[in-house]
Amino acid sequence: MNISQPYLLFLGDVTDPLAAKTARGIVKWRPDACLGQLRLTSDTVCLGLDDLSLEQAWQQGARTLVIGTANAGGFIPRNWVDTLIEAGKQGFDIASGMHQRLSDVPELSELATKTDINLFDVRHFDEKLSVGTGQKRAGKRLLTVGTDCSVGKMFSALAIERALNERGMNAQFKATGQTGILIDGRGISVDAVVADFISGAAETLSPAFNDHDWDIIEGQGSLFNPSFAGVSLGLLHGAQPDALVLCHEIGREHIRHLPHAALPTIEQTLEANLLAARVTNPKVQFVGICLNTSILKETEAQQLCQQWSEQFGLPVSDPVRFGVAAIADHVTNL
């Protein structure tokens, strides 16, 4: 999946700022890819971008209209369809992370059939994949892993990519989830891949390379999450990582949505991920720990990071509060 940039971010008529987190993620990590926003009402959430019409955005070079919001059920509201159709008629590709496929909207499906516009449903993946082989391939790879899902694996990967590039290296983010794909314009949504092909999807996402320094692969789920461990294991095998970064949320009491499932210890998580990753790269190592310390005061968070760094012998940081400089410095020395 390769989505043309720059984008016009479509916010519809949503008024809940949390519903626009996908669009906010794109603006934060790829600001140069965002030409403006399209809002249906003045009450719609604002990203601080220029309000542009479809015509204005096209004239300025936008080529993809990205639905940058989410809602309960993941459906495309009917009152948005006219705008999407008009965008397609003007030549825009359209990208969405909704559960409902763009092609399920009859008018859009017909338009895509009659023209050369692309409809990108990033939550779905229909292309052919091969099973993984585990064969050693050129290039260095870093994978973010976690004690659970939703602990900051995408944010940490993007922060590390940016920090490495700021140090003069050439690092490339490899997206494995819907928001990550929309941020980067490329990737494979691995939770939409049939289980047998997950490791193969990771090999396809990060093939052998010698034209840059690192692939920074966005992790998914956790080996300890009963719902998503299969995806996590497939990524560990297919990514063939040289480096791992562990992500964890301080204060989480149990596996998300599963109060009967206890969180693993940090030691258990380090050990299990190394054991699984060594199947395809015996030399894999952890290079850092990224924490979500939002539950703590900043001084407490700083103290905890220092304490854990001494305890585990790794750089430890909250990437939101303190950045990932120490982790990036560690990676540059590998």
From TrEMBL:
SUPFAM superfamilies: P-loop containing nucleoside triphosphate hydrolases (SSF52540). Residues 53-124 form the D-glutamate N-acetyltransferase-like N-terminal domain. Pfam families: DUF1611, DUF1611_N. Residues 131-327 form the D-glutamate N-acetyltransferase-like C-terminal domain. NCBIfam families: DgcN. PANTHER family: DUF1611 DOMAIN-CONTAINING PROTEIN, GLL3100 PROTEIN. This is Uncharacterized conserved protein, NAD-dependent epimerase/dehydratase family. It comes from Vibrio hangzhouensis.
